[in-house]
Structures are given as C-alpha cells and as structure tokens.
Amino acid sequence: FAPKLLAGRSLLLTAGPTREAIDPVRYISNHSSGKMGFALAKAAADMGANVTLVSGPVNLPTPTGVNRVDVESTDDMLNAVMAQVDSHDIFIGCAAVADYRVADIATDKIKKSATEMQLSLVRNPDILAGVASHTPRPFTVGFAAETQDVARYAKDKLIRKKLDMIAANDVSSPELGFNADSNALKVIWEKGEQDLPATDKLTLATQLLTLIAKRIDNA
Ligand code: C5P
C-alpha cells in the first residue's frame, strides 16, 4: 500500500515520443514506448496526486484516475503543456521529444521519382526549458538519456535548463531504459544526488516521486 505522499499535489507530465509529419502519410519519430512516463502517472495517482498526462502516440492503457491528453507533434505537446502548467505544482518531462521537425510539411503525398531527396529540418522548441522559465513555475523535473558520462551531462542539463531535479538513465544497455520494462536512474538536484538501482519502472517511478515529494517539502 503506497503512502499518500502526494495528496493535495498536482502533477503534469509528458510521455512517449513526438511525431513530426513529413507528408500526410509519413513521419519522423523515435522508439520511446512511453512506459516510464505511464509508470510515473500511475504511481503518482496511487500516491494521491491529481495527474495530467500529456502523451505522444503510444500503445498503453491510461492508468486509473489519470487525466490523459493525446498529442502527436512537439508543437501540440508544447501547447497542451502550456495550457495546463499554471494549474499544476509539479512538472516531469519524460517524453522523448523530437529535436527537429520538417520545415515544410508537404500537403500531398510525396512521389518517388529522383534517386535522392533531401528533407529540411528545423529545431523544435524545448518544452522542459519552456516550463522551467515560466512564472510561476512548478517543481520542474527533467530526464536525461545518455550513453556516456551520464552524471556530467545530466548535471550540465540541470543547470542549463534551470531544473529542480534531473533523472538520468544510461541508455547504452539494451536491458534498461528505452522500451524495456526495467530502468535504473541517477537522480541529481542542486544539493545532492541519489542512485536508484535497476528495477521495474513502476517501483522506480514510486522511488523517484518519493524523492520529489521530499524535495518539495524541503523547498
Ligand atoms: O536535451 P535533452 O533532449 O537530452 O533533454 C531531455 C529532457 O528534456 C527530457 O526531460 C525531455 O522530455 C525534455 N525535452 C523537452 N523538449 C524538447 C527536448 C527535450 O521537453 N524539445
């Protein structure tokens, strides 16, 4: 039985991939399954929080009691998050947001003719950094998926994006992280850090949310 450490709190989080259209039938995306974000949503609801889950396209059922908003593109995700940010006191950016989108989405299906073709891409807005620079801002938590020097890159991201906390995972191991059912996290905040060793994503979600609840109470 989970203690209601988040009773009276409201959590907004992003999960899954975003999808950037190329033309009406094609898109650019990534392999994010959404499992970690959905585990966080379920664990937070079990801990008593009011939860809004902004999700990219995934194949997962909505956890009981969670308010879900489905989006496709990064722009849609940004708009959904910004529309909700003022009514939530914690934000977790768990989505694997596409870093670039197609500069000009073709209105009709692109025909194959030339042997080579080029797509022009433009940088997407950073949703997490947008939330962190919003006033008033929620307690803002980011994820960092790294394959090397995990702690150093994560600390750098904590400072650069002005986050309250960052949860870093090493995605170089195929058993952990992306798409897997298990994960391990190194959680870093301004004045401390804690390793959460490999376990299933729901257990890990509860552990991360427990750390967040403690940090908010100390703030
Ligand atoms: O910089 P990087 O993409 O590694 O940062 C990862 C963190 O930033 C994750 O929490 C992710 O959800 C968030 N992010 C975002 N919007 C982007 C890119 C990343 O919210 N455009």
Automatic annotation (TrEMBL):
Functional pathway: Cofactor biosynthesis; coenzyme A biosynthesis; CoA from (R)-pantothenate: step 2/5; Cofactor biosynthesis; coenzyme A biosynthesis; CoA from (R)-pantothenate: step 3/5
Lyase recorded as keyword: yes
Binding site for CTP: G93, C94, A95, D99, K109, P125, D126, I127, L128, F143, K157, K161
Keyword terms: Decarboxylase, Flavoprotein, FMN, Ligase, Lyase, Magnesium, Metal-binding, Multifunctional enzyme
Stretch list, region Phosphopantothenate--cysteine ligase: 11-219
Residues covered by the DNA/pantothenate metabolism flavoprotein C-terminal domain: 6-214
Cofactor: binding comment: Binds 1 FMN per subunit.
Catalytic activity: (R)-4'-phosphopantothenate + L-cysteine + CTP = N-[(R)-4-phosphopantothenoyl]-L-cysteine + CMP + diphosphate + H(+); N-[(R)-4-phosphopantothenoyl]-L-cysteine + H(+) = (R)-4'-phosphopantetheine + CO2
Gene Ontology CC: phosphopantothenoylcysteine decarboxylase complex
Enzyme Commission number(s): 4.1.1.36, 6.3.2.5
Example GO molecular function: phosphopantothenate--cysteine ligase activity
Role: Catalyzes two steps in the biosynthesis of coenzyme A. In the first step cysteine is conjugated to 4'-phosphopantothenate to form 4-phosphopantothenoylcysteine, in the latter compound is decarboxylated to form 4'-phosphopantotheine. Catalyzes two sequential steps in the biosynthesis of coenzyme A. In the first step cysteine is conjugated to 4'-phosphopantothenate to form 4-phosphopantothenoylcysteine. In the second step the latter compound is decarboxylated to form 4'-phosphopantotheine.
Descriptive protein name: Coenzyme A biosynthesis bifunctional protein CoaBC
